[in-house]
Amino acid sequence: MTVIAVFNQKGGVGKTTITANLAAAIAKNGIEPLVIDLDPQAHLTALWQRQPSVQASIASFYQGKSALTDLAISLNDGIRFIPSHMELARVDVIPSRQHANIRRLKKAIETEMLQESGMPILIDCNPTLGILAFSALFAADLVLIPVAAEYLALNGARMLAQTLAGLETLAGHRERRYLINRYIEGRRTVENVVEALEENYPGEVLRTRIREHDSLVEAIGWGTDIFSFDPDAGASEDFTYLLDELIETGVLEMPSR
Ligand SMILES: Nc1ncnc2c1ncn2[C@@H]1O[C@H](COP(=O)(O)OP(=O)(O)OP(=O)(O)O)[C@@H](O)[C@H]1O
Ligand SMILES: [Mg+2]
Q1: CATH of the domain at 116
Q2: What is the pLDDT of residue 42?
Q3: Which ligand lies nearest to the CA atom of residue 15 in the structure?
Q4: How far is the CA of 256 from the centre of ligand 2 (A)?
Q5: pLDDT, tens digit, for every residue of 166-196?
Q6: Is 221 contained in some domain?
């Protein structure tokens, strides 16, 4: 079983887009992933047309009122989903229980035996280096870091690498993979960023790139993923390659069907 935290403290780099479409790629293979919206902005929750009460959202789990598994709902396309609510923002700003909250998600995944189910778990993180993000990073086997191929991305990647190094002294090594998003072949600034990333993080930059695709934006506008929206689109191909690469390189374990 693999827990993947899709994280970058930089906003708008494609975390939610990548979580939704990678989950869809997994589901297309007949494996039901569990997706957790851990962002108080609740973009994924809105995208999947859910408007849960606080009690039915991941906020209730962080309030200590619900078990994780009780909050999961089944979506039509073979994805289990735990929605978010803006109340979740309190976890990052209230100083009490921070220690417990950082460990809460990992502990629940272990004690509720989600680990044994073999089901991959994807966590769509918020763009803040706070308690929620730490909680996801702590629970994760793999940190998947979308990087929009633009100049400032390198600063963000550096900051993130430092944070992860800090976390490792506390909690051990986490595999991490950088995923270039909004890739435009041949554009000089884009190629420079890719080169610099590969130089700084050898072996950690995925070969797969998610190219710039209008169809991804359109699919989101229709509240769906790229496989349902246009299975023949180049974007579907990118996400199929992404899943294949994660499996082939052994960072994502899939249960046998
Ligand atoms: N490969 C892509 N091609 C075209 N548009 C994209 C691509 N990836 C993301 N986008 C667009 O970029 C915007 C930001 O993406 P997204 O919401 O997934 O980022 P995020 O990292 O989750 O943002 P936040 O930090 O606010 O949670 C969205 O409008 C999305 O449709
Ligand atoms: Mg997001």
Answers
A1: 3.40.50.300
A2: 97
A3: 1
A4: 30
A5: 888 877 888 999 999 999 988 888 899 899 9
A6: yes
Tokens of 161: 């690498």
**pLDDT tens by residue, 84-135:** 999 999 999 987 888 899 999 999 999 987 777 789 999 999 999 899 999 9
The model's pLDDT over 197-227, given as tens digits with 9 standing for 90+, comes to 999 999 999 999 999 999 999 998 888 999 9
What are the tokens at 130? 């706070």
Burial of 210 (0-12, 13-18, 19+ CB in 10 A): buried
Please name which of 105, 101, 103, 115 lies closest in space to residue 82, comparing C-alpha atoms: 105
52/34 Cα distance (integer angstroms): 17
- The tally of domains found in the chain comes to 1
**Distance from Cα 84 to the centre of ligand 1, integer Å:** 18
In a domain, 256, yes or no: no
- Give the number of other CB atoms < 10 A from CB of residue 19: 28
Chain-centroid distance, C-alpha 251: 14
Strand partners, 3: 121
DSSP state, residue 78: S
C-alpha span between 248 and 242 (Å, rounded): 10
Q: Ligand 1 within 6 A of 11 CB?
A: yes
